[in-house]
Task: structure prediction
Amino acid sequence: MNSNLVVILTALNLEYEAVRKRLTDPQTHRHSAGTRFEVGRLGTKGCRVALGLVGKGNHPAAVLAERAMAEFSPAAVLFVGVAGALWPKIQLGDVVVASQIYAYHGGTSEDDGLKARPRAWEIPHTAGQIAQHLARRGEWVRSLPGGTTPKVHFGPIAAGEIVQDSAVSAQARWVRQHYNDALAIEMEAAGVAQAGHLNRALPVVVVRGISDRADGSKTVTDGENWQPRAVMNAAAFAAALAEELVADGAVDQADTARKDGRPQMDATIRNIASGNARVGFQAGQVYGNVTVGTESERPIDLTAELADLRGLLKQAHRDGQLDETTYAAAETELDIASGCLKEDTARSRGKLVVTLKRLRGLVADVADLAARLAAIIAVAKGLS
Result:
């Protein structure tokens, strides 16, 4: 898994451009089947993003989402774009994060009418908690133009195969009857959610800016430029969420498998014996370092560990394992971590862990550095 990379997918060029404007130095990445992605970094020190355009509809969204997941092995996938609101409380320009995704076109036609066969996917718990926390803090709006303060709503999103622009049509009544709690409606989320489900429950988060009310007024709202305004808000929230997902290690559980398919052992394994018992160890295959002895015999000095890590970073940079931008960002995070360690307060110890996780994300492609950081993070967690 590439723990420092998030895939962001969009359906429309307008949505694609809103996300692309947030990327530094995007580089074209060509898939063997012809799909083109652009890979860049959020800002100058943020996480890496692979950006892709899937087009309209759940079917192409599913295919290209699956392709992106296989190609990049990302930490998470975000689908970003616009949607129509289904409830009056949702204002134009607001952001809706899908707590559930409904594929509302499933059903069976019988003599007495059409009966719904619902299918739904929920947002992964950890990703949902991070998104909620991000919305509560409200810091994500700082990247928006002054005076722009959209609300973030969490609730189901309905995904179908046609554009809904009526409040009284047969489809509108169908959605209202069978998916009454849906906050918004669009055309791609079900495909992306299914692709995530098939990829070992890879975290998928759908972020939509409200550009119309799905009630027949779409021509008017499009004429008032609500699409670019709504997608700008969605892209801002999605960018902040991508950073949080990587920094928080939201998908640390996926780190139990290495890129080469070999299992990765926990940083510390303790054997405890009592009485006259003696403890030995036996192992089949061991990856990484093995330490024999007790913690009291070998205390870990975090200050010394960070100093050693700085030297390893420099060596990896000299060897071409880290490019200039990544190396500079890693040095910055290491400086912050060293400062947190010197401050030694409850707040700084918590910040230390988050900073070290960001640093691990930056060097995730260098196996030795990532493994060293995993051990350091385990010790740092014990301090907080």
Q: What stands out?
A: The CA atoms of residues 272 and 320 lie 43 Å apart.
